[in-house]
Amino acid sequence: QKEVEQNSGPLSVPEGAIASLNCTYSDRGSQSFFWYRQYSGKSPELIMFIYSNGDKEDGRFTAQLNKASQYVSLLIRDSQPSDSATYLCAVNGNSTGAGSYQLTFGKGTKLSVIP
Amino acid sequence: DAGVTQSPTHLIKTRGQQVTLRCSPKSGHDTVSWYQQALGQGPQFIFQYYEEEERQRGNFPDRFSGHQFPNYSSELNVNALLLGDSALYLCASSLAYQGYSPLHFGNGTRLTVT
What is the SS3 assignment for chain B? Predict the structure, then answer.
């Protein structure tokens, strides 16, 4: 059974610091990886996705992927109180075709940015 | 450009009843997936519809069924509701056969079974 593991937290960081969120996955054939942010009582919002080994940067966010270690991470630079939310890691085992939208999610890491 | 829309926002049902949830995909999208998110958990895949057919199904019983209409909108039906069906039900849309097309979620329907 495919599994995605995340530290549930809470992870507390001071405002302006770097928040580091980690995720491991069990299916070595996984092709694409997603980070979603979810505020309490709201639906998940896509932050970033990554498919190739290495780093991908978008503004204050950097996603890092290491397929050999089956590890994906999200770095948030200059953390703001508005970044306080639960961050969900999701993994897709099939990159193309009509079956490519079955994401396996972790339970999420709750991030708290302290002013 | 309208995103994914779901209705109703909240719903309260009694154990044993049946419920229907509705979803309209983002403009231009043709594939709809449904997820169940229990409190404190990540979303779990229920099933996915494309070309009005169920294409993939997660580990959910037959009490969960769905439908996709020619305009790509979709319904999720749950029969014989159990207390454990209380959750946030999320609809996500995407464009099939586009490779790395991320899912975009609607605001969800909060179902409470009493």
Answer: CCCCEEECCEEEECCCCCEEEEEECCCCCCEEEEEEECCCCCCEEEEEEECCEEEEECCCCCCEEEEECCCCCEEEEECCCCHHHCEEEEEEEECCCCCCCCCEECCCEEEEEC
Q: How far is CA B19 from the centre of its chain?
A: 12
* Tens digit of each residue's pLDDT, chain A (115 residues): 779 999 888 999 999 999 999 999 998 888 889 999 999 989 999 999 998 999 999 999 999 999 999 999 999 999 999 999 999 999 986 545 444 568 899 999 999 999 9
Report CB contact under 8 Å: B102, A104.
no
The token pair that represents A41 in the structure block:
């009582």
Task: Give the integer Cα–Cα distance in Å for B55 and B52.
Answer: 9
Chain A: closest CA distance from residue B45 (Å): 6
Distance CA B60, CA B28 (A): 28
Q: Do A88 and B43 touch (CB under 8 A)?
A: yes
Between chains, do B43 and A34 touch, taking CB under 8 Å as contact? Answer: no
For residue A97, give the nearest of B41, B42, B97 by CB distance.
Answer: B97
Chain A residue closest in CA terms to B49: A98
Question: Which chain A positions have a beta carbon within 8 Å of B100's beta carbon?
Answer: 32, 49, 51, 95
Dist CA A98 CA A94 (whole Å)? 9
